[in-house]
Design a protein that fits this description.
The complex is a heterodimer of chains A (about 110) and B (about 110). Chain A has about 110 residues and is mostly beta strands. Chain A contains no helices and 11 strands. In chain A, the strands form 2 sheets. In chain A, strands 2, 4, 5, 9, 10 and 11 form a 6-stranded mixed beta sheet that branches. Chain B is mainly beta. In chain B, strands 2, 4, 5, 6, 9, 10 and 11 form a 7-stranded mixed beta sheet that branches. The radius of gyration of chain B is 13 Å and the shape is globular. Classes of the chains: A mainly beta (about 110), B mainly beta (about 110).
């Protein structure tokens, strides 16, 4: 069974603080994607990491893919209230261009003013 | 910006009835997917579709489910005889040559 474990499950912080959420698996993925989901809406893609050790930055968000391509982290610097939401990681176990995503349960982030 | 669109946004149906969920993938994409998310649970892969046939399906995608691309733009998921446990958000996604899958806003299916 391919599982993605995300931690923490819930996180409540004050505006301006930094935070890191983690996505771990015992399986290797060809790529890993981070999404953000608002209640009642579909996941919105933030970033895809493909290469082991890869680091990508999206404004205040920094994504890292583990060297073995089994885990990833998302670091948010100086969190803002607009960062509040559910952050999901999804690992790709598809072959070729077939995207079969295995999902974590998500980290629910609340940034308080 | 191109997007995946899904209709209806909310569907309420009686147990045992058939439902068809509709999706319009991004126009130049070749791979199409259905996922579902039961309230409070993980997003789960149902099926992927390429070149007018199913390329992969999960154990959830049993004989009550079917997918179809009836024309050049729509991609549908049919649930033949709905059960209470089919209540969930159903997401359509599509992908092209890149590694990324793009998701629609979802259809909330409520079986009563």
């Amino acid at each position: 069974t391919q599982l993605l474990e995300q931690s923490p499950q819930f996180l409540s912080i004050q505006e301006g603080e930094n935070l890191t959420v983690y996505c771990n698996s015992s399986s290797v993925f060809s790529s890993l994607q981070w999404y953000r989901q608002e209640p009642g809406e579909g996941p919105v893609l933030l970033v895809t990491v493909v290469t082991g050790g890869e680091v990508k930055k999206l404004k205040r968000l920094t994504f890292q893919f583990g060297d073995a391509r089994k885990d990833s982290s998302l670091h948010i610097t100086a969190a803002q209230t607009g960062d509040t939401g559910l952050y999901l990681c999804a690992g790709d176990r598809g072959a070729g261009n077939n995207r079969k995503l295995i999902w974590g349960l998500g980290t629910s982030l609340a940034v308080n003013p | 910006e191109p997007e995946v669109t899904q209709t209806p946004s909310h569907q309420v149906t009686q147990m045992g009835q058939e439902v068809i969920l509709r999706c319009v993938p991004i126009s130049n994409h070749l791979y199409f997917y259905w996922y579902r998310q039961i309230l409070g649970q993980k997003v789960e892969f149902l099926v992927s579709f390429y070149n007018n046939e199913i390329s992969e399906k999960s154990e959830i995608f049993d004989d009550q489910f079917s997918v179809e691309r009836p024309d050049g733009s729509n991609f549908t998921l049919k649930i033949r005889s709905t059960k209470l446990e089919d209540s969930a958000m159903y997401f359509c996604a599509s992908s092209g040559d890149s590694t990324e899958a793009f998701f629609g806003q979802g259809t909330r299916l409520t079986v009563v």
